[in-house]
């Protein structure tokens, strides 16, 4: 079957067909029938002009009028190309004017972020970054209504003061109504320029800073610390201790270490030359107790010092024997005749006897007065003070040679005075030491003599001990050999004797 054209359905000869005159004529006839003549067109135009075509609307098709307006409200006209362009340009311009550019710009009114966060300001320079609140001039207002959210914020203002005025506030969980005003309690935020210390001396919660395992030689900043296994620290019970550091500068630092498990502490100082050794120090109660014990020992005739260790003080307490305590006042020997040096056994006198077991003997001033001088010559008195045990063994405490020239023709009552200061026996008389000072004078001459005497091995300290004095007169040989008797006498008076 031959193919046909789409509109007039004219046959299209195939390549192997024979075209006849009749077929060609048939094609031309179809063309002639399908083509409109001018008369046909005129008839059609006349018919169209007589038709009633409605205006187009939103509900029906029809004819429309073109318009270039961009601000009209008609729904029966069609926009021209120009109107479409003008509307686009106006929209872009309005969009730019209604938003901030990426480079920034000025915005009036408050900025609300996700309904609750608000950034607002007033014309007087006050600025508020708030949660559920904003500034309306100088008035604080709630942004939203809520049953218990409340409001909080950071508020910056300037009222002419020299210091910074940055505050914070928090109303707590209270009910809020959008647009309602409120008065917050403002708390000033501390500024770094405020007069406050900025050096951290402990942890933020007040606990000591942990420095476990560190070297105390490197802990030089003022503060309170704690730690275990600290190098260059004193010995601590369980290894733990508190450390207090007071700093003057890098080369002058004071460190104190308190034992965590015992009532004791240690102290040392860093100086230009380095660290001093650790010293163990007592708490004040311990100091008071030690001072009291030292005072009690000394009051009982002992010799103690606060520098003594506790072990030494205990030993000194044990040495005190209360049952042997004795005190004598104004003991006088009576008149003792001074014999010349040629006498084999000079006269001596016992001043007092101390009971067995005495551990401390204290002598007050000892005065020697001479009287009844019946001769005129130069003489030298020899005065000896000594201890004597129950076996007669002596320990000489002193020997004083005093020289005086008596006035010619003197008959009697010439006073010669000699004073002996306190004699201390610092240890029990068991191979201990006897020490003291001797002050004596005659005429216008004063003398001070110090002595230190060792108790001999054969001196018996277990029995009673006598305090004795011996007086002897030495004169020039030519006098001594010619004078057979003297009437010179001495009186020995001891102000106080105490023994324990």
UniProtKB/TrEMBL annotation:
An annotated GO BP: symbiont entry into host cell
InterPro entries xrefs: Phage_lambda_Stf-r2
Domain of life: Bacteria
Pfam families for this protein: Phage_fiber_2 (PF03406)
UniProt-recorded name of the protein: Phage tail fibre repeat-containing protein
Organism per entry: Paenibacillus polysaccharolyticus
């Amino acid at each position: 079957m031959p193919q046909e054209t789409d509109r007039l359905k004219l046959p299209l000869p195939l390549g192997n067909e024979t075209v006849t005159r009749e077929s060609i004529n048939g094609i031309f006839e179809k063309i002639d029938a399908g083509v409109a003549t001018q008369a046909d067109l005129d008839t059609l135009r006349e018919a169209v002009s007589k038709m009633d075509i409605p205006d187009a609307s939103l509900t029906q098709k029809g004819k429309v009028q073109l318009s270039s307006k961009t601000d009209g409200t008609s729904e029966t006209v069609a926009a021209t190309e120009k109107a479409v362009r003008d509307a686009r340009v106006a929209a872009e311009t309005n969009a730019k004017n209604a938003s901030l550019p990426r480079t920034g710009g000025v915005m009036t009114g408050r900025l609300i972020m996700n309904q609750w966060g608000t950034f607002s300001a007033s014309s007087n320079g006050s600025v508020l970054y708030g949660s559920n609140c904003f500034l309306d001039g100088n008035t604080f207002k709630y942004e939203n209504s809520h049953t218990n959210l409340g409001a909080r914020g950071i508020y910056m203002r300037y009222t002419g003061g020299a210091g910074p005025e940055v505050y914070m506030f928090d109303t707590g969980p209270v009910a809020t109504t959008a647009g309602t005003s409120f008065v917050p309690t403002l708390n000033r935020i501390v500024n770094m320029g405020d007069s406050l210390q900025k050096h951290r001396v402990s942890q933020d919660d007040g606990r000591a800073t942990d420095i476990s395992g560190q070297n105390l030689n490197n802990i030089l900043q003022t503060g309170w610390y704690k730690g275990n296994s600290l190098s260059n620290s004193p010995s601590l019970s369980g290894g733990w201790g508190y450390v207090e550091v007071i700093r003057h500068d890098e080369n002058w630092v004071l460190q104190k270490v308190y034992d965590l498990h015992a009532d004791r502490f240690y102290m040392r100082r860093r100086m230009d030359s380095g660290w001093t050794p650790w010293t163990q120090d007592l708490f004040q109660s311990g100091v008071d107790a030690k001072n009291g014990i030292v005072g009690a020992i000394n009051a009982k005739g002992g010799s103690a010092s606060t520098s003594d260790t506790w072990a030494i003080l205990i030993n000194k307490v044990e040495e005190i024997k209360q049952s042997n305590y004795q005190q004598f006042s104004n003991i006088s020997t009576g008149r003792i005749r001074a014999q010349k040096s040629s006498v084999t056994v000079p006269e001596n006198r016992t001043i007092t006897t101390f009971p067995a077991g005495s551990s401390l003997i204290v002598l007050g001033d000892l005065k020697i007065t001479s009287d009844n001088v019946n001769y005129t010559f130069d003489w030298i008195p020899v005065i000896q003070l000594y201890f004597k045990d129950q076996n007669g063994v002596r320990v000489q405490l002193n020997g004083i040679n005093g020289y005086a020239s008596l006035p010619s023709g003197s008959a009697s009552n010439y006073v010669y005075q000699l004073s002996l200061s306190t004699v201390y026996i610092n240890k029990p008389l068991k191979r201990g030491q006897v020490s003291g000072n001797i002050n004596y004078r005659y005429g216008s001459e004063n003398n001070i003599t110090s002595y230190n005497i060792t108790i001999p091995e054969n001196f018996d300290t277990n029995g009673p001990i006598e305090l004795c004095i011996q007086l002897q007169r030495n004169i020039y040989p030519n006098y001594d050999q010619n004078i057979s008797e003297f009437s010179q006498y001495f009186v020995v008076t001891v102000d106080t004797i105490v023994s324990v």
